[in-house]
């Protein structure tokens, strides 16, 4: 292809920020390429224009870049490719498929090497839906191809304005993604529709008729979340916590066991090793909902901490754009962003290089609005054909020093609907998942009735007060009734809030089972116990707890399950 | 052939500025002064102005000192001749041996493609129960020892290095006391490990910029051995806090806006770029990184340990001569401790949980409350745990340590008090206590 690009010349290099004197004109946020002497093309984005100079953030290492190097401006904003074949893929922040990069470059990432995100060779079994003469708008379905367990809709590109009349279609058959599957005209020009379209990542896709209030629970199979601090399909939640509190293990559990159609894991500036676990394990893990493998519903966007920092900033947008694309098909998508703090840090680094006036802790002043607009891309929507689709966003937050007062946590707390505070103390005591029952909150409805949850929460709170009191007055100064209250709160914690994510059975607790177990838990909480002394009470509760834990480890409604339940009932009857 | 520049327009901290043309970002230069020649590296370009970080420091540089650009970035020799050798931070021999010039490789190379990594799978046995049982060390792990000045962290580092089964040891010392350097050398020598060791040593009295190079030099060498010769490499870096302080110094000189306690905003990325070099390959060797991070003021929320903790796969807290059970963590232990012995995980979780309760009781006791029966059991347990498991002089294999764990539990509790699954209790509860 002999396209002519607008050009420029490098005038300065400061970290990954390159200043360029441009020859004609530039567009804010357009993609440009810095061309080194070794003829490497380093992808970058225009982030500021001053006079005849543009500042570019380069998505690669800038070592070896010289003053005087040529720059080409592409004329288009940073975009992703959308089409069948995104699922199961592992992309970097700029949507380069990492396995294909590995084939070409070996062990290490090679800068300036970019690969098309969607496989051009693979054939898809295409079925047309639209007919010649149909009048369609952006986002309307032209045809479908099967992908995973659902039909992937091939849609009129989201960027096309106005109404388009289909003039030509092709019939059933196996085609690759670049095949023209239909032609359409708006009366002035005729355009081709293929299976692949591009969309700028920083612009939300809004081809739906309305946004709805998220109210259906998203079942994560984690008891403390679903029962106590639930998440809704289309909602937003965050998991802030200091390092070592179990954020990653929780995110993995969510990615595996959440009952949604598509999971997008955005590993943003975190450890590569964590992604590798998903990468290597998901192809072998069964998805009990569909009978297929977990990888079939997963996309991984992986821009780990040692990869270039500007691409880390882009990776968050890349992943949410892919989520929006699948939402357009009427699917429920869960986006797990780990960690939004690293994204914020990338913004901070960039802002520092631009020598902007810093806000709190040197984060840029516009941090809050960027965080808010990211979470606002979640939501439950009614599509134009009446179907519903949703994006639920879970952002991990890594507050410096575990202090929730810092800017990123604060900005996030303002915009999310559910706040799962991970606590170092709970993690130290091996009380996993370490979501703190007193510090967390949720605005979404639970799978268990509100009154029941409120009762359990009250006991947790009161039990905690008794515990605090006992630290002052000692066990002997505590009335037995208060002591039993404390034992009950510990009981809730131990047998219900805590869950063993590494146990095959206990790790996944379905909605039905949670309701059932919760009722049993309530029976214990409601029961009036009459113990002679505290030591008898403690012994009884430890034993009951043991029975309950064994019950948790038995498969739902199995023989062992019924037997264990019978033992608990007997203990309760005998007390 | 290469043009020489001799008009230095700015000298500030360890950074000098010259006006020059056709210079690449990251390129090396030689700066000639009356005190000798030093290497320098380009860290910023602004039109004709070239900012250089001078390795030997700017002291003695005059405005007409000669600057000659070398047209290449910082490199280190990748060859087996490195083994048994000791270098400074910039790669100059410290041991009177010859300088190595063959097969030069760029340092600070690109990141490993995550798609090429494999899930870590090999346990590294250390003989220390606090590590083997509770926070198992795994090949290709990156793990710091969080400590404070005065603790025997370098001894612990050396002990793990000597007991770990690895092919090559790369030791990077940053701001190391000369005595500590000698001690490391002696320990390695004593165990006959010197011949499979490469050392890059920056001592406390060396120029600060060289400190910045130590991790990159060490890791470039480690990558060479791991990918080219399929070796299992253990990289020891001590002390990373000195490295961060050097970063801070340069950042402030360059007038960057500091983010937290004077440290630059990219501290996280800088540390991650080094730590993420830890890797295990399917078809090549592996790199394991063990470091020391001293916590200024014993404060884990200090930016250095805080950022480190978010990057590394766990941490060992070394407090009062033992590895603290709380806070110490190996994130990779789950990868290996399912296949060691079936009671490993249950024992690990429940022993720590009980120890946490012991600590609470201890607090109560110190406030003078009467101890209940349960409290007394916990007190007995806590003492046994500290003696049998936490004492750093204990050196026993994992299986023996697990048995000891059951014995301690059985001496102090009844099975249902431990919270361990019934079928495990049935299998492992010591018969004499049944």
Question: Any overview of this molecule?
Answer:
The complex is a heterodimer of chains A (575) and B (434). With 575 residues, chain A is an alpha+beta fold. Chain A is built from 14 helices and 28 strands. In chain A, the strands form six sheets. In chain A, strands 8, 18, 19, 20, 23, 24, 25, 26, 27 and 28 form a ten-stranded mixed β-sheet that branches. In chain A, a hairpin with a 4-residue loop joins strand 15 and strand 16. In chain A, helix 11 runs parallel beside helix 13. The radius of gyration of chain A is 27 Å and the shape is globular. The termini of chain A are far apart. Chain B has 434 residues and is α/β, with parallel strands linked by helices. Chain B contains 13 helices and 23 strands. The longest helix of chain B is centred in the last third of the chain and has 23 residues. Chain B is elongated. Strand 1 of chain A pairs antiparallel with strand 5 of chain B, so a sheet runs across the interface.
Relevant terms:
heterodimer; A: 575 residues; alpha+beta; ten-stranded mixed beta sheet; 32% helix; B: alpha/beta; Elongation Factor Tu (Ef-tu), domain 3; Rossmann fold; 3 domains; seven-stranded antiparallel beta sheet; 13 helices
Helix count of chain B equals: 13
Which architecture of the largest domain in chain B would the CATH scheme give at its second level?
3-Layer(aba) Sandwich
Shape of chain A: globular
CATH topology of the largest domain in chain B: Rossmann fold
- Structural class estimated from helices and strands of chain B: alpha/beta
CATH top level class name of the largest domain in chain B: Alpha Beta
| Structural class designation of chain A | alpha+beta
Helix coverage percent of chain B: 25-40%
- Indicate the proportion of strand residues of chain A: 25-35%
What Rg of chain A is obtained from the alpha carbons, in whole angstroms?
27 Å
């Amino acid at each position: 292809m002999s396209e002519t690009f607008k050009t420029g010349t490098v005038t300065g290099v400061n970290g990954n920020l390159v200043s360029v004197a441009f020859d004609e004109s530039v567009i804010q946020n357009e993609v440009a390429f810095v061309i080194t002497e070794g003829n490497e093309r380093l992808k970058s984005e225009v982030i500021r224009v001053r006079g005849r100079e543009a500042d570019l953030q380069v998505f690669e290492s800038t070592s070896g870049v010289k003053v005087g190097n040529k720059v080409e401006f592409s004329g288009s904003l940073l975009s992703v490719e959308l089409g069948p074949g995104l699922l199961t893929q592992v992309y970097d922040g700029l949507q380069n498929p990492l396995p294909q990069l590995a084939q070409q470059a070996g062990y290490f990432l090679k800068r300036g090497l970019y690969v098309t995100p969607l496989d051009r060779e693979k054939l898809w079994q295409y079925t047309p839906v639209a007919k010649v003469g149909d009048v369609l708008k952006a986002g309307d379905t032209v045809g479908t191809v099967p992908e995973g367990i659902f039909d992937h809709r091939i849609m009129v590109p989201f960027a096309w304005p106005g109404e388009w009349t289909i003039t030509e279609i092709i019939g059933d058959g196996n085609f690759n993604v670049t095949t023209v599957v239909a032609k359409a005209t708006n009366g002035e020009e005729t355009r081709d529709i293929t299976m692949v379209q591009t969309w700028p990542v920083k612009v939300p896709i809004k081809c739906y008729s309305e946004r709805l209030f998220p109210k259906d629970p998203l079942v994560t199979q984690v008891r403390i979340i679903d029962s106590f601090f639930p998440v809704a399909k289309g909602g937003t939640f965050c998991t802030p916590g200091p390092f070592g509190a179990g954020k990653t293990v929780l995110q993995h559990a969510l990615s595996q066991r959440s009952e949604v159609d598509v999971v997008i894991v955005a590993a943003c500036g975190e450890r590569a090793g964590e992604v590798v676990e998903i990468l290597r394990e998901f192809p072998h893990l069964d998805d009990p909902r569909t009978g297929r493998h977990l990888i079939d519903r997963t996309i991984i966007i992986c821009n780990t901490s040692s990869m270039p920092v500007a691409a880390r900033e882009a990776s968050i947008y890349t992943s949410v754009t892919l989520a929006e694309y699948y939402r357009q098909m009427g699917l429920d998508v869960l986006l797990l962003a780990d960690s939004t703090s690293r994204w914020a840090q990338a913004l901070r680094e960039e802002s520092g290089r631009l020598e902007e006036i810093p806000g709190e802790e040197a984060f840029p002043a516009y941090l809050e609005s960027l965080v808010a607009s990211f979470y606002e891309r979640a939501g439950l929507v009614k599509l134009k054909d009446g179907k519903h689709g949703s994006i639920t966003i879970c952002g991990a937050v890594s507050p410096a020093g575990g202090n929730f007062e810092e800017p990123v946590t604060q900005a996030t707390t303002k915009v999310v609907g559910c706040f799962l505070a991970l606590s170092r103390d709970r993690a130290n005591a091996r009380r996993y998942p370490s979501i703190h029952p007193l510090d967390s909150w949720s605005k979404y409805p639970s799978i268990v009735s509100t009154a029941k949850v409120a009762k359990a929460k009250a006991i947790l709170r009161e039990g905690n007060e008794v515990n605090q009191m006992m630290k002052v007055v000692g066990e002997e100064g505590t009335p037995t009734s208060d002591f039993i209250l404390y034992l009950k709160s510990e009981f809730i914690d131990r047998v219900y809030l805590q869950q063993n994510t590494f146990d095959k059975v206990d790790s996944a607790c379905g909605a039905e089972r949670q309701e059932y177990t919760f009722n049993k838990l309530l029976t214990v909480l409601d029961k009036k116990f009459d113990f002679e002394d505290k030591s008898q009470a403690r012994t009884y509760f430890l034993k009951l707890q043991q029975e309950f834990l064994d019950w948790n480890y038995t498969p739902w409604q199995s023989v062992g399950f019924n037997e264990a339940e019978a033992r608990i009932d007997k203990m309760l009857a005998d007390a | 052939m290469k043009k020489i520049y001799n008009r230095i327009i700015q000298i500030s901290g360890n950074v000098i500025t010259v006006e020059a043309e056709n210079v690449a970002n990251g390129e090396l230069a030689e700066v000639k002064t009356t005190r000798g020649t030093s290497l320098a590296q380009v860290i910023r370009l602004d039109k004709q102005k070239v900012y250089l970080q001078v390795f030997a420091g700017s002291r003695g540089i005059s405005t007409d000192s000669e600057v000659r650009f070398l047209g290449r970035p910082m490199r280190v020799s990748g060859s087996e001749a490195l083994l048994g050798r000791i270098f400074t931070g910039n790669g100059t021999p410290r041991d009177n041996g010859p300088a190595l010039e063959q097969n030069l490789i760029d340092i600070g190379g690109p990141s490993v493609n995550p798609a090429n990594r494999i899930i870590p799978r090999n346990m590294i046995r250390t003989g220390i129960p606090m590590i083997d049982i509770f926070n198992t060390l795994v090949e290709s792990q990156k793990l710091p020892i969080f400590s404070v000045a005065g603790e025997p962290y370098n001894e612990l580092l050396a002990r793990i290095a000597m007991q770990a089964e690895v092919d090559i040891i790369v030791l990077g010392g940053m701001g190391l006391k000369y005595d500590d350097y000698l001690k490391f050398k002696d320990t390695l020598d004593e165990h006959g490990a010197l011949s499979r060791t490469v050392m890059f040593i920056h001592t406390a009295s060396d120029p600060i910029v060289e400190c910045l190079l130590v991790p990159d030099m060490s890791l470039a060498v480690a990558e060479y051995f791991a990918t080219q010769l399929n070796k299992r490499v253990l990289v020891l870096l001590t002390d990373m806090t000195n490295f961060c302080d050097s970063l801070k110094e340069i950042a402030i000189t360059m007038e960057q806006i500091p983010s937290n306690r004077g440290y630059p905003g990219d501290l996280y990325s800088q540390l991650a770029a080094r730590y993420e070099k830890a890797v295990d390959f399917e078809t090549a060797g592996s790199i394991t990184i063990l470091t020391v991070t001293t916590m200024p003021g014993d404060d884990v929320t200090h930016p250095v340990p805080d950022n480190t903790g978010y990057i590394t796969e766990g941490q060992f807290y070394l407090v009062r001569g033992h590895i603290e059970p709380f806070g110490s963590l190996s994130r990779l232990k789950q990868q290996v401790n399912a296949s060691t012995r079936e009671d490993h995980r249950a024992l690990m979780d429940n022993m720590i949980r009980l120890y946490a309760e012991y600590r609470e009781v201890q607090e109560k006791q110190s406030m003078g409350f009467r101890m209940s029966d349960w409290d007394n059991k916990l007190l007995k347990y806590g003492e046994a745990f500290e003696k049998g498991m936490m004492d750093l002089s204990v050196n026993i294999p994992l299986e023996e340590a697990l048995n000891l764990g059951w014995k301690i539990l059985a001496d102090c509790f009844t099975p249902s008090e431990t919270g361990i699954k019934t079928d495990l209790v049935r299998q492992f509860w010591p018969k004499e206590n049944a």
